[in-house]
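Chain X:
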Amino acid sequence: MRRVLVLGGTGEARGLAERLSADGRLHVTYSLAGRVREPRTPVGEVRVGGFGGPDGLADWLRRERVEAVVDATHPFAGGITANAVEAAGRTGVPVLLLRRPGWQPGPGDDWHHVASLPEAAALLPGLGSRVFLTTGRQGLSHFAALDLWFLVRTVDPPEPPLPAHTTTLLARGPFAVEDELAVLREHRIDVVVTKDSGGTMTAAKLTAARELGLPVVVVRRPEPPPAPSADTVDDAVRWLDSVLGTRDPAEGLHPHTG
């Protein structure tokens, strides 16, 4: 059987792993970093925990005789992606970055793009005093010194230090527009902060903010290392067919030039 490693944590990763696992020619390992307490996992072999950096991952790829790696982690999991590309380069194993496209502003949106969480924090006092913060449970210390009120939504309890005036909302997407409108109105939110995660799972807050005329601070994605990339599960499957020699070379994939 051909051995494939899928670095997961996203809906696309789960969908890809389940689709590949249905192919009797493939042995798929779905790997999670272990940062979420009760992650959603696909049917099949699941590995939880780090590899020990690029050295550990390279050793694991050799030991397990992996023939292809698909990094389908969160667009902001930059360290994992860098390790995957480096380890694949050392071992000669083909690697693909599966990344859903980022969000794009539309008519009526009031978006403010920033490069980092510290930049987002610096921008907030000029935009509002009641903040809906949806950037995940890590990195909240960048907002701790602000004398603003925060509604922090995360899947698991957030990591301190937190802003002094914080209400925590534990929830997991997908979210509906009507529910997001209710949250924004109930808590009298006047500015939303998000990472550019892309996809539909959490995009409803952007529509709700647009309908209420609220500004949104959007943290740009980190630039990934140079590697082939795909936007969809279908493209990732075609890439795997190509590198494993089961079909004609895929079309529509594009190398990321950094």
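Chain Y:
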Amino acid sequence: MATPEYSEITRNGLWSNNPALVQLLGLCPLLAVTGSVVNAIGLGLATTAVLVCSNLAVSLVRRQMPETVRLPASVMIIATFVTCAELLMKAFTYELYLVLGIFIPLIVTNCAILGRADAFASKNPVLPSVVDGLMMGVGFSAVLIVIGAVREIIGRGTLFSDMDLLLGPAAANWTLPVLGADYSGFLVAVLPPGAFLVAGLLIAGKNAIDASIERRQNLGADIVRGSKRVRTTGKIQ
């Protein structure tokens, strides 16, 4: 099996095969904990770390893993790194861990992670597998952060509130009153229906951009196919 180019791996993870916008995987945490930017960043970092480490481990042992035990072995590897991420969050960002709650251990069940381990890491060398995990994690995290930012702005009127949960006391004053101090908030935005609406708009926006790019490419191809080479003869007076 030919190893994909790194540019293709990057494009797949960030855009054309984005776990959240295209594969529609990991929607449970994406919709549940993206009420603010800090929650989105925390879950995104944990998911990305598990993706990279699990892809690395699966790729390292791919030749020693029989086909019959590949899936349960991959689940055990992912569960190991999720446990490590959970313990690290308990040690260094305990308050944020309490906010995210059950969605940290539930990273084990994120189909995006298991899917990349089974579909890519088990068939490719170490470095491409690590890059694939990183790009898929960054693409997933970017969607989390965008949804979290939109919901926080509309729901609370602020941005980067409670960043001290992740970065410590130094970030306690990072809150930006985007919509003014008198903004009373919009409750639907911070509830699960708000997450559905924002995610749906993002998916629709991506589809519209892809359709526009495809139309331009088809138009350019039609012009090339329909063009004729004209030979000019005679003199111009």
